[in-house]
Amino acid sequence: MGIRATGRLLQIEEEKQDTTGIILLPDNVRLGGKIGKVISAGAHVDEVKKGDRVMFAGNDRMSVRVMWGNKEYYFCNESDVLAVIDG
Asked: In angstroms, what CA-CA distances link 46 with 15, 27, 51, 72?
């Protein structure tokens, strides 16, 4: 049994950042978006595909954070993707 995005939604797994030698800020004061990998895309998603690395608005107003098994995913609208990261 699994979980996947439907409609115009994306399922994104956030990349864990290397925290060696940096100051960590809580998500509510951090600027910019989160970076993650698209795990699944709904049938009506046009510009982003499964496997893309994206920057997305990962705040609580624009995405839903879900724990499934031992993994954490974000579900957000395609319009909440700020950029597709090449390379």
From this structure: 23, 29, 14, 24
